[in-house]
């Protein structure tokens, strides 16, 4: 017998320790095999299924959608979308202002078609790890509820997106659990999860194509308006046509940005038109098209924020139809303008022009 082996056999403590290590290794290997076999069995036996049986066939009955999310110690943020008698979805906290139809459609289809793809933990102590602790408990889950009247058709808590964000077919994956149940799921599907009311608004605004605009007037109705015109629909640049004596334009890019600011704008918030009275001497902007439509915007506000109201009119039959459409969408409301937009639309002649110099005579007379 080898001397090393003989020494090992005679050392009883060392021999016992080695035997214990061998037994532990065998037991661990057996446990791993058992777990792998068990998980394989679960995966093999589990069949993905809709999270809400029959919901996909009842989506046309939904007339209210409620999103609830946590604001930490400031309680919960609740966004409610409601469908009116005409079938139009609106945001309740914004007096029913039209909601983004595509987002609403994605909510309905997303909830109706979402599948339980793989089961996860049913232990409430692990809900936080999956982002599924409910918002009332200052959790990060977003609760999505679909109602028909007072009857709740579905309630879902939406959590984290896993590292494996899509399945083998490219479908989105997310952790969810049905509201009121502890069982969690890795679900297959997609669902918009915006937390703020503004994110759900239809942000379609002054959608007049730039190519149609003939004239934009800042500070309309005052003794120092800024009138910017294009000579034809093909003209690339707006030009200031009422330059004061001794002044020159700061150039096409500057003027174009001011003239197109309203056409390219969105809005930061919205309220019913009767919420705010505009001062008579407030800034006014008038946009006129080559077809004879005129859109007037009257601004006012306080605290550095400008709000705007709109009225439209048309000279020709086609222009009148366009004005009617704009009035239907814009006139019931007053809009909070982004700071950059309001800054562009309140520029004065002094800002958009400069003192004329000798070089300006090369490009035309300066009065």
Please give a quick description of this structure.
The protein is an alpha+beta fold. Helices cover 24% and strands 27% of the residues. The protein is built from 7 helices and 20 strands.
Q: Strand order, biggest sheet? A: 1-6-10-9-8-7-2-3-4-5
One letter per element, helices H and strands E, the order comes to HHEEEEEHEEEEEEEEEHEEEEHEHHE
Largest sheet: 10 strands, antiparallel
In helices, the fraction of residues equals 10-25%
Tell me the domain tally: 2
Total helical elements: 7
The structural class is alpha+beta
Low-pLDDT segments: 27-43
Shape estimate: elongated
Radius of gyration: 33 Å
Distance between the termini: 118 Å
Q: Tally of extended strands? A: 20
Average pLDDT, to the nearest integer? 87
Q: β content, as a range?
A: 25-35%
Walk me through what this model shows.
With 367 residues, this protein is of the alpha+beta class. It folds into 2 domains: 50-200, no CATH class; 210-357, no CATH class. 24% of the residues lie in helices and 27% in strands. It has helices at 3-10, 12-45, 101-113, 252-260, 317-330, 339-345, 349-352, and strands spanning 49-50, 64-70, 76-83, 89-91, 97-98, 115-119, 142-148, 151-158, 173-178, 185-188, 213-218, 226-229, 239-240, 247-249, 269-272, 284-289, 293-300, 307-314, 333-336, 353-355. The protein has a 10-stranded antiparallel beta sheet with strand order 1-6-10-9-8-7-2-3-4-5, with helices on one face. Strands 13-12-11-16-17-18-19-15 form an 8-stranded antiparallel beta sheet. The chain has a two-stranded antiparallel ribbon with strand order 14-20. It starts with a helix and ends in a 12-residue tail after the last strand. 27% of the residues are buried. The model is unreliable at 27-43 (pLDDT under 50).
């Amino acid at each position: 017998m080898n001397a090393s082996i003989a020494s090992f056999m005679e050392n009883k403590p060392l021999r016992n320790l080695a035997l214990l290590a061998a037994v532990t290794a065998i037991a661990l290997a057996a446990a791993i095999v058992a777990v792998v076999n068990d998980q394989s069995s679960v995966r093999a036996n589990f069949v993905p299924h809709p999270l809400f049986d029959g919901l996909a066939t009842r989506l046309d009955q939904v007339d209210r959608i409620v999103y609830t999310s946590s604001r930490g110690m400031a309680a919960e943020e609740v966004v409610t979308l409601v469908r009116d008698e005409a079938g139009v979805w609106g945001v309740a906290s914004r007096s029913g202002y039209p909601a983004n139809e595509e987002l609403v459609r994605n909510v309905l289809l997303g909830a109706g078609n979402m599948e339980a793809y793989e089961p996860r933990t049913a232990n409430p102590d692990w809900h936080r790890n999956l982002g599924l602790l409910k918002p009332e408990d200052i959790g990060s889950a977003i609760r999505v509820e679909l109602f028909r009247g007072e009857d709740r058709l579905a309630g879902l808590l939406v959590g984290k997106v896993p590292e494996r964000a899509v399945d083998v077919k490219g479908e989105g994956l997310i952790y969810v659990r049905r509201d009121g149940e502890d069982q969690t799921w890795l679900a297959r599907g997609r669902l918009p999860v915006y937390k703020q009311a503004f994110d759900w608004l239809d942000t379609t605004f002054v959608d007049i194509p730039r190519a149609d605009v003939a004239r934009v007037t800042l500070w309309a109705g005052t003794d120092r308006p800024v009138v910017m015109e294009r000579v034809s629909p093909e003209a690339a640049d707006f030009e200031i046509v009422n330059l004061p004596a001794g002044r020159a334009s700061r150039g096409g890019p500057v003027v174009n940005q001011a003239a197109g600011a309203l056409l390219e704008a969105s809005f930061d918030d919205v309220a019913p038109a009767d919420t705010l009275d505009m001062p008579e001497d407030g800034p006014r902007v008038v946009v006129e098209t080559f077809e004879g439509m005129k859109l007037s915007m009257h601004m006012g506000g306080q605290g550095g924020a400008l709000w705007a109201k709109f009225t439209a009119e048309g000279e020709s039959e086609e222009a009148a139809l366009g004005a009617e459409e704009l009035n239907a969408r814009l006139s019931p409301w007053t809009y909070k303008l982004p700071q950059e937009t309001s800054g562009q639309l309140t520029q004065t002649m002094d800002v958009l022009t400069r003192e004329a110099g000798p070089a300006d005579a090369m490009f035309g007379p300066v009065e």
